């Protein structure tokens, strides 16, 4: 475990702002004695919330006042130009300067991506950053799904690079060699899908670093057959949010069905802990941060309506990525693989 | 109810072929005294299966021998050229000639789409056919999701036309005026998504026939806020199959959790009917046919691994669409709306 770990938090993002991020920050420093958090946002609001939790004078919670906030309706490019003193920007600047080793935000995804890209820059050879998250499966290990919305459309080379980055993340997180990587498609046969996917499949097949296992369909995501599934951001975002929606629907229907008769009402009461635990497991978007990979720094994006528990999970994820030195690992593999690949594709 | 209803079935498609389609056909004619089915496929195989169900001489089950089968690996364009005596093609030809009022297949989706397009042709003014299916929601009514994989990419005009077709389907199926139509996107704000979606949103907003209600995210699909949700085929296919996958995962995790202790084992036993019923409801792909809309004829696509029950549901869906005269209704609305729209977009 690292003895000196500093993470910058954008306290003002998401639907709940400091009401969610402050309790999460307090819990995180209490749980990890090596963790220091720099709380970026409106000093007055943060102080008030900290006071209500008796943590205003916590030695490892440092407030960094910011006069601006990036709202959800803010255009990414205008956020970069005109929100230089926003909580999101200041948190990213702290990573850039090295004052913090990672940052966490639950704010406007588009703006965070654009700003992170602008402030931190890409790792050498990486075309685009991607949002990646662990999704539960029927097996013990989760599957890493990317891109979850950082890039609406992706060309073949970008999808191929996402395969490499996903593979590094899975390798580090699962502790396994040669994670199985697949491409999300609308069928498992070679003829299925569009040109970019077919070309990405070829690039992945040719890459000696990757353990490419072919196409996956939406229904394969949760079987655990793959360790990494690659898709463009629009598709990944819809898939992840569809999971969230269907998990809610099933829990809604199950609870409703169980409430219909007195007998089932009693069952429902007894089952409550099982259902609650299950819901947490199958609702990945709510309980895990998604990480922005491919940048020269660690950025974890928490869900827009993240609860304190979800924001806490995102801080935890950022801490683990610092320990794993994820950007450095990605850079090393890219240097090795990408140069080989470039020669191969230039041929 | 129609007194004379003939539906052509492609008996050889899907993972189970006649083992699934024959029991479904026998059940369908037994359940509906007005229904005649033309069973297209290998006569010997069909006869044998019918005999095993004591239905070889059923007066409303007519075998039409076909010497070819369209396999899952068959390229759509080559299927059209070289599979003229396939069960899929013959079933479509029967709709074209008027011998049947609809057809059902669980075969290769790409080939079915390409062949149906080639044989039946588009309705006047419709650019592309779409696959549409009902998906369950938290409310009483389902939501109609399209396109589910007929078109990998769609431009703005195509998405807009899907909105109109989806609206007609929902209007007829739900018996409601002005169904609420939305576009699937990666955020609800106007700035989100790609250019085609933004332009489609404008076209839908300007259309007096449509009750366009804005963007939906993946998590909104099941809330029942919209009656129709429009997206391109790649995204719709992934979303639907993701539903299928997560429904299976949740049932798997729930059953596993319930089996851990003796107490929960007993609960699981008592809960079995509730869980089974729930699974049927939340796994739309398995229990509903998806319809191909926009063509001059009714084509229902059953799931590739359709059980007899699922194939039966698809026959039932085809019968309902014949009663509702769906292609005629779509054509009428298109004539009225599309001509107005064309003038508007030409300005």
UniProtKB/TrEMBL annotation, chains A, B:
An individual GO BP term: fatty acid biosynthetic process
Superkingdom of the organism of origin: Bacteria
UniProt GO cellular component terms: cytoplasm
The reaction(s) this protein catalyses: a fatty acyl-[ACP] + phosphate = an acyl phosphate + holo-[ACP]
Keyword DNA damage: no
Localization annotation: Cytoplasm
InterPro entries: FA_synthesis, Phospholipid_synth_PlsX-like
EC number assigned by the record: 2.3.1.274
Pfam families associated with the record: FA_synthesis
Pathway: Lipid metabolism; phospholipid metabolism
Enzyme class: transferase
A Gene Ontology molecular function term of the record: phosphate:acyl-[acyl carrier protein] acyltransferase activity
Gene3D superfamilies: Isopropylmalate Dehydrogenase (3.40.718.10)
UniProtKB keywords: Acyltransferase, Cytoplasm, Lipid biosynthesis, Lipid metabolism, Phospholipid biosynthesis, Phospholipid metabolism, Transferase
Protein's job: Catalyzes the reversible formation of acyl-phosphate (acyl-PO(4)) from acyl-[acyl-carrier-protein] (acyl-ACP). This enzyme utilizes acyl-ACP as fatty acyl donor, but not acyl-CoA.
Subunit structure: Homodimer. Probably interacts with PlsY.
Protein family membership: Belongs to the PlsX family.
Name of the molecule in the record: Phosphate acyltransferase
């Amino acid at each position: 475990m690292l003895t000196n770990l500093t993470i910058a938090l954008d306290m003002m993002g998401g639907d709940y702002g400091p009401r969610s991020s402050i309790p999460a920050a307090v819990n995180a420093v209490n749980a990890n004695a090596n963790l220091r958090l720099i709380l970026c946002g409106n000093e007055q609001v943060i102080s008030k919330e900290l006071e209500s939790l008796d943590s205003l004078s916590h030695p490892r919670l440092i407030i960094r006042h910011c006069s601006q906030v990036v709202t959800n309706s803010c255009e990414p490019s205008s956020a970069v130009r005109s929100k230089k003193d926003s909580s999101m920007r200041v948190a990213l600047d702290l990573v850039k300067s090295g004052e913090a080793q990672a940052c966490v935000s639950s704010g406007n995804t588009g703006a965070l991506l654009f700003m992170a890209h602008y402030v931190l820059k890409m790792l050498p050879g990486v075309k685009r950053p991607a949002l990646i998250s662990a999704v539960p499966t029927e097996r013990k290990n989760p599957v890493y799904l990317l891109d979850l919305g950082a890039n609406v459309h992706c060309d073949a080379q970008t999808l191929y690079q996402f395969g490499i980055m996903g593979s590094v993340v899975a390798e580090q997180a699962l502790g396994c060699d040669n994670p199985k990587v697949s491409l999300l498609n609308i069928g498992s046969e070679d003829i299925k899908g569009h040109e970019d996917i077919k070309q990405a499949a070829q690039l992945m097949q040719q890459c000696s670093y990757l353990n490419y296992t072919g196409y996956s369909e939406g229904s394969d995501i949760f079987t655990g057959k793959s360790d990494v599934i690659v898709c463009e951001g629009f598709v990944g975002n819809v898939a992840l949010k569809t999971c969230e929606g269907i998990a809610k629907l099933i829990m809604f229907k199950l609870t409703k069905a169980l409430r219909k008769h007195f007998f089932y009402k009693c069952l429902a009461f007894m089952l409550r802990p099982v259902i609650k635990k299950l819901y947490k497991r199958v609702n990945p978007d709510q309980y895990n941060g998604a990480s922005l990979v491919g940048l020269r720094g660690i950025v974890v994006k928490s869900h827009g309506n993240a609860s304190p528990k979800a924001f806490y999970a995102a801080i935890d994820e950022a801490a683990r990525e610092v320990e794993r030195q994820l950007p450095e690992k990605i850079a090393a593999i890219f240097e090795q693989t990408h140069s080989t690949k470039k020669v191969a594709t230039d041929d």
